[in-house]
Amino acid sequence: MDRDWAEPLDLDAVAAHAGYSRYHFVRAFKAVYGRTPGQYLSRRRIERAEELLRSANLSVTEICTLVGFSSLGTFSTRFKKQTGLTPSEYRARHVGRGAALIPGCYALLWAGGFPGKQSGGESPGKQRNSEEAG
Predict the structure, then answer these.
(1) DSSP-assigned beta bridge partners for residue 56
(2) 63 with 114: CB under 8 angstroms?
(3) Distance of CA 131 to the CA centre of its chain
(4) How does DSSP classify residue 109?
(5) Among 18, 67, 79, 85, which is least packed, fewest CB within 10 Å?
């Protein structure tokens, strides 16, 4: 979940990979991390959204999609619950305290574009990582 936080969570697949039933996995995960896998994943996505709101010149809707939320309403509600601010309020409070915002096109290129919208082959981010490894 830490590696593929922007992807949809298939709890059955994650539990099977860990060698547990779905229900036992949720209980064990919550005992260790203090929250369910879904709550943990949501927290990780909001943390990434905070970073993008501070650094990238992308709309709140674009950031919502990039971090793995399919609903802007759900994203905004969870963001406010976790940070105490709406995404727009968070950006207004934190932008302008350092370097200029990264242009949105660069941020999208680095992130591989919008999930599920790639046209054939690997995403640019995966290609870049493959080239860096070689």
Answers:
(1) 102
(2) no
(3) 24
(4) H
(5) 18
Report residue 117: phi and psi, to 5°. -115, 15
* 105-109, 122-126, 128-132: range with highest mean pLDDT: 105-109
Residue ranges of alpha helices (H) inside 21-133 are 22-33, 37-55, 60-66, 72-83, 87-94, 104-111, 124-133
pLDDT of residue 127: 40
Q: What is the pLDDT of residues 28-46, one digit of tens each?
A: 999 999 999 999 999 999 9
- Taking only the tens place, the pLDDT of each residue in 96-120 is 665 556 665 655 565 666 555 544 4
Beta-bridge partners for 102: 56
- Please name the amino acid found at residue 76: S
CB 11 within 8 A of CB 23: no
Task: Give the dihedral of Cα atoms 12, 13, 19, 25; nearest 10 deg.
Answer: -40
The span from the CA of 73 to the CA of 101, in Å, is: 25
Q: Does the CA dihedral 79-112-127-14 come out positive or negative? A: positive
Tell me, what's the pLDDT at 102? Answer: 61
